[in-house]
Input
Amino acid sequence: MAFDRRRSRFKKRVCRFCGNKEINVDYKNIDLLRNYVSETGKIEPRRATGTCAKHQRLVSNEIKKARQMALLAYVVD
Output
């Protein structure tokens, strides 16, 4: 039997923000930012969300701003 190399490969995700330029990442957009925070209140990593490095930095900074303004909680009860 020949080793099937295609079996171990997976489809590369496209960044949600690179694909749709109309989505605005802002600390006031709480509904969008909640998708990038786990149930325990941690910021989700790139490999879990599928965002590129540039937009992951932007999202994490906006989450931190929203926490500072008390729009998002630091820790979930």
